[in-house]
Amino acid sequence: MSEHTCTMLLAGRQATIDGSTIVCREEDYGNEFDPQRFVLVHPADQPDHYESKGSRFKTDLPKARYAYTATPDADDSAGIFAAGGINTANVAMSATETITSNARIRAVDPYNVVDGIGEEDFLTLVLPYISSAREGVKRLGRLLAKYGTYEANAVAFGDHEEVWYMETIGGHHWAAVRVPDDAYVIAPNRFNIADFDFNSPTTMCSPDLKQLIDDYHLNPGRTGYNFRLIFGSASNQDQVYNNPRAWYVQSRLGGGRSGSRPTDYDLPFACVPTNKLTVEVVKQVMSSHYQDTTFDPYQQKTGQRAPFRSIALNRNLELHVLQIRNGVAKAIAGVHWLAFGPNTFNALVPFYANVTDTPAAYRDTSNQYTPTNMYWLVHTVTALGDRYYRQSQPLAEQCSEDIMAITRHCQLVTDRQGQVTPADLTAANDQMATVAVNRLTKLLGQLVGMTFKKEKLQY
After folding, report:
1. Residues identified as active-site
2. Into which family does the record put it (predicted)?
3. Is residue 366 within 8 Å of residue 373, measured between CB atoms?
4. What angle in degrees, to the nearest 10, is found between the helix axes of 422-452 and 389-415?
């Protein structure tokens, strides 16, 4: 399993409380630190010529381009890994979700391990050049067909009307499904697209994909085309690493299959939630670790391994909720909600995307420990909070709620100003970042005071 393993949640505009579309993903890494930055890439900063670090891929890029937000690695020696962002055409993209494959499709269409493209490249090669979610699927599809990929990944695109979920297939093929307007999708690190209709206006794929399946006898199903069955995995690893995350979120948000179990492979792809989704609820499920079940790691005995992999982990790098709002001016429609660090202890902030720059505490992340950087501040809070979880949990939850309430109010005030410039939105983002830094610093002080009283060197 790749170190960049994540969890994705998508929602159509009729599934959300305010009619916005949502493209959400939490980005994971290994147990080492991987500092993240929040940046605005201006058109002049986008390279004319691009070369990968993970392969020999290189290409010239179009001159016409949009500015866009992104959350790249602070250390770009292994590649940009821009992760997720919103461009000035109000198109959101998240890339990528590591998924699974199987030997049948990889034998027919092997990975291009020499000069293919991968996670490090996708967002940089696509987001600056698209004006809709559909265009994003088509552009990435053309790149995959031409250059191939060396790994299995899922990508999501959103605009003010549509959300599309796309998965790579083998080395040069792909498929995409439009998320139903009234539904959400929870996607762990497995192949997630299930039943696929080649004739539907809500699907897209490689032109020769059906013929490839039929010619090489790739479909074990008796009827239809279930892509999870055809192209995905059904391993013991899926039962403990992937399936339970989908099961838990579906059990919380509703719309899943009655009587399903955490280890089930055939959980639904898209579900209609019981209630319309809010960003707060999205944050809750993306911060989940099987609360209220016996699978919660915090309920295990000391030294006992948790039975299932949860969404919230010490390996969480950043959480983005890319929201394209309807019913507001285009200048303020794109909101790049962002939180750095482990989700159990971080806090989302609604940053406007149409800005001139990003807040310094999120932008200027150092590779060295610097507690004034948001990435390092949250990791410091987590290091103390995780050790005394029961005592710190209510403090962390209150902190997250306070930050969301205050920054949402700042957003409401800014929205009501009417005509706003990118400079105005940049100033609002700076104000919200200051709120988040100050409130999390206060939480850190509370945790230091709490843990200090538990020091063993007392007499």
Report:
1. 6
2. Belongs to the peptidase C69 family.
3. yes
4. 160
Rounded Cα distance between 2 and 149, Å, is 15
Among all chains, which residue has been given the structure tokens 């539907």?
200
Cα–Cα distance, 326 to 162 (Å, whole number) = 12
Domains of the chain: 6-366 (3.60.60.10)
pLDDT in tens, the chain (459 residues): 445 689 999 999 999 999 999 999 999 998 889 999 999 999 999 999 999 999 999 999 999 999 999 999 999 999 999 999 999 999 999 999 999 999 999 999 999 999 999 999 999 999 999 999 999 999 999 999 999 999 999 999 999 999 999 999 999 999 999 999 999 999 999 999 999 999 999 999 999 999 999 999 999 999 999 999 999 999 999 999 999 999 999 999 999 999 999 999 999 999 999 999 999 999 999 999 999 999 999 999 888 889 999 999 999 999 999 999 999 999 999 999 999 999 999 999 999 999 999 999 999 999 999 999 999 999 999 999 999 999 999 999 999 999 999 999 999 999 999 899 999 999 999 999 999 999 999 999 999 999 998 888 888
- Cα 182-187-190 angle, rounded to 5 deg: 145
| Cα–Cα distance measured from residue 219 to residue 82, given in angstroms and rounded to the nearest whole number | 35
Cβ atoms of 346 and 61 closer than 8 Å: no
Q: Token pair of 96, please? A: 């990528």
